[in-house]
Specification:
flavin adenine dinucleotide binding, Butyryl-CoA Dehydrogenase, subunit A, domain 3, 54% helix, binds flavin-adenine dinucleotide, Butyryl-Coa Dehydrogenase, subunit A, domain 1, Butyryl-CoA Dehydrogenase, subunit A, domain 2, globular, AcylCoA_DH/ox_N_sf, four-stranded mixed β-sheet, alpha+beta, Acyl-CoA_Oxase/DH_mid-dom_sf, 3 domains, flavoprotein, four-stranded antiparallel β-sheet, 15% strand
Length: 378
């Protein structure tokens, strides 16, 4: 284990995991945890040190998100969207926006949320209907964003909207009088991630709020989502790890059918699948992160593959973990109950399992042009 991962692990074991079920019950991450993450500089992990951040490489970032995900998927989700926003602000934000926001974003004093999804625009982002109408040097935004992680508490929204020149991304101050938000509670999983619907009504922002050029919104969304996908893949590894630990501990102590559960071969089969899936998922995440660090464009596909495998493996591991805990695993407040519900969310966010299958298959066909040309008849 690298020294960085050991530090992440110790933090999670001390500060996050013991309270994760309390966070979930309260449907919020308390301020002291936000501050503790900030004290380590992890809200700014993706921003280079030269710009005030911590400047982790992608492998270290993935290790951080795996460890946080092992303890609490809600906190990891909040870290994911903040990281995506911080990255977009640093990479494509105007000089004025960076000067205004970056110092507080890297410490977590300003919390960011990512606003792409709308009631009618989910997997298909081309259906975004929110408009950004130019008015002098300003833009006026109108529309509704739904399922926004951290939307209840965010100080700064990264909002995607249509302009006459095409899709664009904007930074919207939550104090803008054109912003209103309503909490979304009792979701299946990541219950402490403080989801909200965010409504923009005649929401006027200056031209400097534009992130990237008008028309370059998809580029910003794709770049941020690629990072978010790596984070969710890593967080899914954390869920598998947590499921494995809980299952090993439980089956090593419970006697049924004349012996410890751990000594039944059918139980061992599930435990070995969990461990194998964990190692495979970690390797895929590590490959995607390494390619990012090397600036290799193959990282995009590698990240899809990593997220597809890790999130589906997390769902398998959580299903087996509940199964092997029996009724205990179904009990309200038991961690494996939470892992199970959180794992399902991992299969939906940052590109659903089906969207990943479609995308990965498309990549497979592009990789082998001869197979396309022959029409499959050989
Ligand atoms: C807990 C949570 C947190 C979230 N946080 C955020 C956030 O912070 N910001 C944000 O912008 N959004 C967020 N979302 C929204 C999330 O990104 C969307 O739910 C996701 O993109 C899927 O969109 P949808 O729910 O509208 O499902 P749909 O797109 O309607 O899909 C429904 C089903 O159809 C399948 N499907 C869709 N298209 C195809 C296709 N072409 N081929 C085959 N199958 C297909 C999907 O896989 C899915 O199973 C969050 C969602 C959840 C649950």
């Amino acid at each position: 284990m690298t020294p960085e991962r050991s530090a992440f692990r110790a933090f999670v074991d001390e500060t996050v995991a013991p309270r994760a079920d309390e966070f979930e019950r309260d449907e919020r991450i308390p301020d002291d945890v936000y501050k503790a993450v900030g004290a380590h500089g992890w809200w700014g992990a993706v921003v280079p040190a030269s710009a005030g951040g911590t400047g982790f490489d992608m492998r270290t970032l993935a290790a951080l998100h795996e460890e946080i995900g092992r303890g609490c998927s809600s906190l990891r989700s909040l870290l994911t969207v903040h990281t995506m926003g911080a990255y977009a602000l640093y990479r494509w934000g105007s000089a004025a926006a960076r000067e205004q926001w970056l110092p507080d974003v890297v410490t977590g004093a300003a919390r960011m949320a990512f606003c792409l999804t709308e009631p009618q625009a989910g997997s298909d982002a081309t259906m975004v209907a929110t408009t950004a109408t130019p008015d002098g040097s300003d833009f006026v935004l109108d529309g509704v964003k739904r399922w926004i992680t951290g939307g209840q508490v965010a100080d700064l929204f990264l909002v995607f909207a249509r302009t006459p020149r095409g899709p664009a991304a904007f930074l919207v101050d939550a104090r803008n009088p054109g912003v209103s938000r309503s909490p979304i509670s009792n979701v299946l999983g990541t219950r402490a991630s403080m989801l909200a619907e965010v409504r923009l009504t005649g929401c006027r922002v200056p031209g400097t709020a534009l992130v990237g050029a008008a028309g370059a919104g998809m580029l910003v969304a794709t770049g941020a989502l690629d990072l978010g996908r790596l984070s969710v893949a890593a967080g899914s590894c954390g869920i598998i790890d947590a499921c494995l630990d809980a299952t090993v501990a439980h089956t090593a102590g419970r006697v049924q059918g004349g012996g410890l559960l751990r000594d039944h071969q059918l139980v061992r089969a599930k435990v070995s699948d969990m461990l194998t899936d964990l190692y495979a998922a970690r390797e895929l995440v590590s490959r995607a992160a390494r390619l990012k660090d090397a600036g290799d464009p193959e990282t995009i596909n590698a990240t899809w593959v990593a997220k597809y495998h890790a999130s589906t493996a997390a769902m398998r591991a959580a299903t087996d973990a509940v199964q092997l805990h029996g009724a205990l695993g179904c009990a309200d407040g038991h961690p494996v109950n939470r892992y199970f519900r959180d794992a399902k969310v991992m299969e939906i966010i940052e590109g659903s399992t089906q969207i990943q299958q479609v995308t990965i298959a498309e990549h497979a066909y592009r990789r082998v042009p001869a197979a396309n040309a022959s029409g499959g008849a050989r």
